[in-house]
Q: What sequence folds into this?
């Protein structure tokens, strides 16, 4: 499979590209916003595309054409305003879903955030972020695509150990970004997670086993 | 009909309540956020309810119970940040749609903004606002309710003259808030605008005629 990784320069996206390229089973196409970000991924042997998520659906679709799956790992990040939360985390995600449909890419893995599917779980400081993520997730769930939505808990930079808990409604917890990336890569090969949305934190089960039980 | 006006203290909402009460054909129930806003509407003989759109769907549904139609004229306004655009213009609107379904109120008139249904029309300074309004509109269109979405052009405080143009895609233009309010009140009695979304600016046609032709 060729896997388009949108938000490849992000902390999770980068590890997804690295793992796909290292594993060698699939190939990654890294989507980044800035020209100076390209060479890192070219050095990994990945294909690349320069796309601004604030651009048109057509721009994204043309990068997606010929891919077999899309991983959406982009985010406006904590350093920008809530206007960018709307334009990237909500509208950018939805445009990518529409681009997948236009380009005929059926498989779509979304990186969301723990608990955003339940409004009563939205923590007050980042309520607007939770809302943006939630509505992007709902759009994907209604898209007709073969989606998987991962909702990881608090992200850490610890080394991953490949052990998780995955479930519809989990208590808050933490997970290394590396294990989120591991779970994304595993999800690409796991049919049982198609049409599923689930919370994800560090735990006791091997990733593949945990995904199979969903 | 009893018409629940959400955002009654806003510049359009206020005129909607006034016109409904003056006309005497229907009755208005004014939904406001602050206690000191209640007396103005009580003096008009309108029912009132105190609801914070950042609260729960259930709060809104309990205010909506027993109404026959909802007018959503709320907005976070230009003085707050984009986080409130997400929480009021997007999530508040969507919660009100869900509350309408919960409360069994089938008729829903939404005040949107010109051109937000086409991403290429979003003007760059308020792109995030356009996105929020757009996704709220899409949610309503998919809700199964008897919706009407009015997308007025630039709002002025001029006196209304009851003359408009209404159409799926209009060039940018202006319209007095009073004529938006007149159009909302007329739309409540006009079956031909059910399941319709349209741009709205000042023009040459009487409101009722313009609505009938949609």
A:
């Amino acid at each position: 499979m060729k896997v388009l990784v949108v938000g490849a320069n992000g902390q999770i996206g980068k590890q997804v590209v690295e793992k796909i390229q290292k594993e060698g089973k699939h190939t990654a196409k890294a989507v980044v916003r800035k020209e100076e970000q390209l060479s890192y991924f070219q050095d990994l042997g990945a294909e690349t595309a320069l796309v601004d998520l604030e651009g048109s659906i057509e721009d994204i679709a043309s990068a997606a054409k010929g891919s077999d799956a899309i991983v959406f790992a982009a985010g406006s990040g904590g350093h920008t305003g809530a206007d960018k939360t709307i334009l990237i985390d909500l509208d950018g995600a939805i445009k990518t879903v529409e681009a997948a449909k236009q380009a005929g890419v059926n498989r779509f893995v979304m990186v969301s955030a723990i608990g955003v599917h339940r409004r009563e779980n939205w923590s007050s400081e980042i309520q607007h972020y939770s809302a943006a993520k939630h509505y992007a997730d709902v759009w994907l769930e209604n898209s007709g695509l073969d989606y998987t939505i991962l909702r990881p808990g608090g992200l850490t930079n610890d080394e991953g150990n490949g052990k998780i808990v995955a479930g519809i409604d989990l208590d808050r917890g933490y997970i290394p970004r590396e294990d989120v990336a591991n779970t994304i890569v595993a999800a690409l090969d796991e049919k049982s997670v198609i049409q599923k949305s689930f919370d994800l934190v560090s735990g006791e089960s091997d990733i593949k086993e945990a995904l199979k039980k969903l």
In short: Chain B has one domain: 2-212. The first strand of chain B starts at residue 2 and ends at 6. Chain B touches chain A at residues 56-57, 81-87, 90-91, 94-95, 119-120, 127-128, 131-132, 135 (CB under 8 Å). Chain B has seven helices and eleven strands.
